[in-house]
Amino acid sequence: MASTTASRVGDFIDSLGVNIHSQFYDTPYYDIDQVLASLQYLGIGNVRDAAGYASLQLDRLAYLGENGIKLDMMVGVQGDTYANQFALVEKLAPYLRSLEGPNEVNYWEATLDGVGGIAGARAVQKLIADYVSSSAALKDVPIINFSVAASDSGSFAAYGDNSANADYGNAHIYYGGGATSYSVLSTYVPMANQMNPGQQMVITESGYPTQTSGAGNQGVSEAVQAKYTLNLLLDTYKLGYKATYLYELVDSFQDSTDTNQEAHYGLFNYDWSAKPAAMAIHNLTTILSDTGSTSDSFTTGTLGYSVSGLPATGNTLLLEKSSGTYELAVWNEQKLWDSTTLTEIAAKSTTVTVTLDHVFGTVKVYDPLLGTDAQSTYSNVSQLQISLTDHPLVIEMADAKSVAIPPDSSTTTDAHTITLKLSGDSWQGDAQVKVFIDGVAMSDTVTVAAQHGSGQTQDLTLSGHWDAGAHTISVQFLNDAYGGAAGTDRNAYVDQILVDGNELLTSASWLTYNRTIDYAVSLTDQIVAGKTPVTVSSAVSTTLASTADNLVLTGSAALKGVGNALDNVITANDAGNNLYGKDGADTLNGGAGNDYLDGGTGADHMAGGAGNDTYKVDNAGDVVTEAANAGDDRVYASISYTLTDNVERLNLTAEGLTGTGNAQDNVLYGSDGADTLKGMAGNDVLYGNAGNDTLEGGDGNDTLNGGTGADHMAGGAGNDAYIVDNAGDVVVEAANAGDDRVYASISYTLTDNVERLKLTAEGLTGTGNAQDNLLYGSDGKDVLKGMAGNDTLYGYAGKDTLAGGAGNDVLFGGAGADTFLFQKSDGAGRDTVVDFSHAEGDVIQLLGFGVDSWAEAHAAMKQSGTSVVMTLDGGESVVFKNMTVAGFHASDFLFS
């Protein structure tokens, strides 16, 4: 069989990336801590973003960079000046993985000095290359070409060879009709490479949305998204792409009708719950994790292997860890989605035979869709069969090695140990055994290197807490081949057994024929029930045996510690651990890392320690303890819950609950039901998510976002901000309770005691109240009505209508042809128009003042310094800043 050179698993994982939108303040991306936590959960360290909103992005992206995330930043995009974009990426230089040209230039035109189209895109790309080469901070940062959104060869050819201004080509690849990734990728490379011949490609956007209503042709179910995404990531690496950035991290807005495809590309749902695709990626990167010091630099080996029975749509990828362990991914790419019926197609199962060029001591088969534990384990094999369906399986192969057997645990003074002294005759290799007590495996496979004929033994020491009485110690001999092929015999011996140093067995027992020998012993005199609980120390991920009490995780690796039905004490190391108490009233102690603590059933006590810790609370008796300044911590609660001191964040995971903050600045998230969130003291952020929620900010400058549903929001004292997106949303503020504002994506009228309104969508009407209000339009065609009070109105871009109403109002139309409306029925006042412009098409509409012609309007105007004052009936006057009477025209006025 042919030998294949493996790739480093670290190189594969480093090829994985995901798109984010750090500037989207009104989406889940607003929570940058959750963005980081989700990336860490995925095991992905690369993100792609656009440098179009520098003032909103710097701190957020730098925060990701400081926590180990590398950035691919698009430059030359709409939203900010090129100078500001270059200034931003220079400040982010320590965290950059690459810079990238403009996005999808055939849809989003890139321009430079008034030149657009193909020439404009090439000019902007050259501008980037020239700037990078002249910048000390950026000169070593690789450049990716601009992207073109197309699927035909001619569209790419039209932009010509641009390799002089880029180090990598760029590809955006999506899969209409639920097509498999390989079927599209295999034809896409030569087309896209026309713009960067001879250069490696980067896929900066690719993925499958989970919108399945039938609108559009790309959506698939969440289950199919998970399978297709695993296949996609392996396909792109196998085909030689430098990196693949999935689109995108989280569903960036809600779409309860399932009709907007753009709302469903995320690996996480809008509420940050993981879709199956996110869980599958987490499992894959966990299975392949390589924490060795040379994981990014060691020289890989070669392995001879064959896979028989693999269909034509199947594929393999050989990877290697720095420990020398091989990881063979095997997958069969079947079409899984019927875009007509909008249903998943049942995959066919195929049995394939994997043959290896030599015997491996341990072979494990993992399924990333099912978790991170091996689904099957083989010892001393060179061939195995697997059942392959529609997503990758990972076969892990480790050579058998003779190693010293460390103690299974460290114990307290009253703990108890069982020591087996083992030896073997190794004519054709060392013997292998496994030890059980009362049918429970107490050891992994042990290789016996000690020579029986020379009187040598090696100790296998086990620790635990057993009840007094009769017990059975079983020793299973795994690899004797007596009666099999000639010349493969080997023997194993149990020379002695001691309990707490007392001999229970003194004559050697000889194990043959792959058999198990049992030793029936009474431990009444040696082990007495009720002594000090046993504490197990482990430098690997460990699940406590049913008789063990406590677990201490040691070493410097990120580990998982799992308890049992007893009242356990589980203590983390400082690397960031996952601790699970399971049954019983457990105590979980985190270390200095970012720990996850889940006490399980029972009233548990959880203390995360330093680091950004996460807690799962499901019992009213659960207690969470955090010290001051010990990280940014979060609780996921399936019961109504109040945050304890020094915990910052709360997510409700069941419907109809109440979540309450503490005296700190909290972030509270509701579920998809009707929840109640109470911020209490501090500057809090409250997200109701779906459902008709009740949000109470309490003291402090709070932000209240009810999410979908008709929500009731009361900010309390402080300068509060509200997100309004439903006509049923109600905002309540008391008098003199701060300077408050509403961000509305619907037409909206301010309720009493709220001072400011910002429209966040186009074509809306924003109306003030009886107070002095500040109203802000969007970049579209808005209507702003100040009503009573001395109001200030900002139209911004678009063809806006501004009506100050009663009071002395100030009106800024902004860019666009705006209408300044004055009605006698609104009441008297002295209003000011700051930026009237005949050139932009602004007009003045006068209603009810008896001014019905240009001549009458002209007669009502008088020059006053650099302003024009128009005096009207009813005590109304209007001041036009920076204008002259001669600067007005008849076309500037409307009278009906």
Topology:
Blueprint: E1 3-5, E2 7-8, H1 9-14, E3 16-19, H2 32-42, E4 46-50, H3 54-66, E5 70-74, H4 82-91, E6 96-100, H5 117-134, E7 143-144, H6 153-157, E8 169-174, H7 181-192, E9 201-207, H8 222-238, E10 243-246, H9 276-287, E11 302-308, E12 314-320, E13 326-332, E14 337-338, E15 343-344, E16 350-366, E17 376-388, E18 393-398, E19 416-425, E20 431-437, E21 440-441, E22 446-448, E23 458-464, E24 470-477, E25 491-499, E26 502-505, E27 509-511, E28 516-522, E29 535-538, E30 542-543, E31 550-553, E32 560-562, E33 569-571, E34 578-580, E35 587-589, E36 596-598, E37 605-607, E38 614-617, E39 623-625, E40 634-637, E41 641-642, E42 649-652, E43 658-660, E44 667-669, E45 676-678, E46 685-687, E47 694-696, E48 703-705, E49 712-714, E50 721-724, E51 730-732, E52 741-744, E53 748-749, E54 756-759, E55 765-767, E56 774-776, E57 783-785, E58 792-794, E59 801-803, E60 810-812, E61 819-823, E62 829-833, E63 843-847, H10 854-859, E64 861-864, E65 867-871, E66 876-880, E67 893-894
Parallel strand pairs: 2-12, 3-4, 3-10, 4-5, 5-6, 6-7, 8-9, 9-10, 29-31, 30-32, 31-33, 32-34, 33-35, 34-36, 35-37, 36-38, 37-39, 38-40, 40-42, 41-43, 42-44, 43-45, 44-46, 45-47, 46-48, 47-49, 48-50, 49-51, 50-52, 52-54, 53-55, 54-56, 55-57, 56-58, 57-59, 58-60, 59-61, 60-62, 61-63, 62-66, ...
Antiparallel strand pairs: 1-11, 11-16, 12-13, 13-18, 14-15, 16-17, 16-18, 19-23, 19-25, 20-21, 20-22, 20-24, 24-28, 25-26, 25-27, 64-65, 65-66
